[in-house]
């Protein structure tokens, strides 16, 4: 029994290990790198968050962004972008953004 458990644990570790490597490779090829965050922002989020169109919180309105980050928390904000809101299209017009990209974009807008 314990031998099977050990084997199972090892297999799981192996699976998790290769899964992580896969995620890493995918992230490196398809998602924006840190340097591209400004470009990604310009190409997607800026359409609304630059001008405050449709009542979107403006980039640089740190007080409002900090309040939102504190109230809802970063994971909830990332989910809002991914699933969309009343006025914001799901994904925020970024087709290949990862959770990490969204986190960086939100961070970028909050400054
Ligand atoms: C078509 C306009 C539009 C685009 C494009 C857009 N947003 Fe938004 N966003 C909004 C509006 C409007 C709101 C305010 C909530 C609402 O009424 O939908 C909002 C709210 C948010 C919020 C707050 C969510 C919450 O839970 O309160 C975050 C975070 C956010 N946007 C991030 C982004 C990011 C990151 C991008 C780019 C990848 C983006 N948005 C692109 C319009 C947009």
Automatic annotation (TrEMBL):
The lineage of its organism: Bacteria, Pseudomonadati, Pseudomonadota, Gammaproteobacteria, Moraxellales. Keywords: Electron transport, Heme, Iron, Metal-binding, Signal, Transport. Residues 1-34 form the signal peptide. It comes from the Bacteria. PROSITE patterns: CYTC. Transmembrane segments: none annotated. Residues 32-111 form the Cytochrome c domain. This is Cytochrome c domain-containing protein.
